[in-house]
Design brief:
This protein is an alpha/beta fold. It is about 35% helix and about 20% strand. Strand 8 (about 140-150), helix 5 and strand 9 form a beta-alpha-beta unit.
């Protein structure tokens, strides 16, 4: 079920509690483009955890959207600075993390310091350099692991493990959407002292969706 875009005069007021005003446009894009809701129970979505849910975040419909890319990049750079650590490079498990990391790296050219880009393979390459990680993150680099959405946390955990195996230092973990299914707690356990956070929580985006539905 989609929501029709409002006219300029019908746009909602301040975003729901917890959503940074500076990132309200990105939140609205996620709700309009990526938030899916099944109308019948038999159409419920199967999550990576194996659970069935009436709602689903198809985040790549937003992370691959040109208008969203600078908003994503700025939101993550703002979060890095809020955490007090700007990494040398940013990346995560291909494919969900790739457009997020690309947006961050490109936007960092406009808001230095520049952050380089890497991508974590799902399996080690069997020829050539036989790498787990491709891109600009040599051993010893401080890296932020990112992803589009976290449910169980499995993809991010795999990326963290690969980074450590390749001699990278984990500086932080930041995801675009936390589905609030317990995945973030697992990431905090794995990250040690590195901060772990989400730009948006599922409940915040659900609250925004209701406001957009009502036009308030």
């Amino acid at each position: 079920m989609s929501i029709e875009p409002p006219s300029q005069s019908d746009r909602p007021g301040p975003p729901p509690a917890g959503i940074d005003v500076a990132h309200a446009d990105l939140a609205e894009l996620l709700v309009r483009r990526s938030y899916l809701e099944a109308e019948r129970e038999e159409d419920w979505f199967v999550l990576t955890s194996g659970k069935r849910s009436p709602t689903y975040f198809d985040c790549q419909v937003t992370t691959a959207y040109a208008r969203a890319m600078p908003l994503i990049g700025r939101a993550f750079l703002d979060e890095f600075r809020r955490q007090g650590v700007v990494p040398d490079a940013v990346g995560g498990l291909t494919r969900g993390a790739d457009p997020v990391a690309q947006a961050i790296a490109y936007t960092s050219l406009l808001f230095p310091p520049v952050v380089q880009l890497f991508s974590v393979r799902k399996a080690r390459k069997e020829h050539g350099m036989r790498r787990f990680i491709e891109g600009c993150a040599p051993p010893g680099s401080r890296v932020a692991v990112v992803d589009d959405v976290v449910t169980s946390g499995k993809s991010v955990l795999q990326a963290i493990a690969a980074c450590r195996e390749e001699g990278l230092e984990l500086s932080q973990v930041v995801v675009l959407v936390d589905r609030e299914e317990g995945g973030m707690a697992r990431l905090r356990d794995a990250a040690g002292k590195a901060p772990v956070s989400a730009i948006f929580k599922r409940t915040q985006l659900e609250a925004l969706r209701e406001r957009l539905r009502k036009g308030v």
